[in-house]
Design goal:
Layout lengths: L20 H4 L6 E6 L2 E9 L3 H10 L4 H17 L4 E6 L1 H9 L29 H7 L9
Antiparallel strand pairs: 1-2, 2-3
Helix pairs in contact: 2-3
């Protein structure tokens, strides 16, 4: 689902560094979907709320402790103080709209469609920002160096 989904409690032992790839493929998540007549209307999951388990998942993804602190320090620090078990769920409004109007192709009902390249055909976003806009927002563009 995503790297913040809580693994099934019975499968936590399979997350150890000594586990082989086949064991890792057997790990189940605490995730769920709402399906109506074959249409997935929404999905969600129980989130990881323990620092050690989150770091295990990051390690499996090649994100070590130092990098996880840089990228997700706010989350990892919060876990040190204790976080309650929690979960999330979201409806796919576009899918629900397609179902309600009897449309089989979800692309026909997406309110703000994007092209394959990620551009918005209505607004032509993303576009370049001119200097006046940057100055007004107090921003500056720093060229990427490779």
């Amino acid at each position: 689902h995503h790297p913040f989904t809580m693994p099934h409690e019975d499968d936590l032992a399979m997350l150890s560094a000594s586990s082989d790839a086949q064991d890792l493929l057997k790990v189940r998540s605490q995730a769920y979907d709402l399906v109506l007549n074959g249409w997935e209307l929404g999905s969600g999951s129980v989130r990881i709320h323990q620092r050690e388990i989150q770091q295990q998942i990051f390690n499996l993804l090649g994100i070590g402790e130092e990098e996880s602190q840089v990228k997700f320090g706010f989350l990892m620090d919060a876990f040190r103080y204790g976080a309650p078990p929690h979960a999330g769920f979201a409806f796919g409004i576009d899918r629900l709209a397609a179902l309600l109007v009897g449309e089989e192709n979800i692309r026909e009902v997406i309110a703000f469609p994007k092209s394959q390249s990620g551009t918005d055909p209505l607004t032509e976003a993303p576009t370049s920002i001119d200097e006046a806009q940057l100055e007004e927002l107090g921003l500056k563009v720093i060229p990427e160096t490779l």
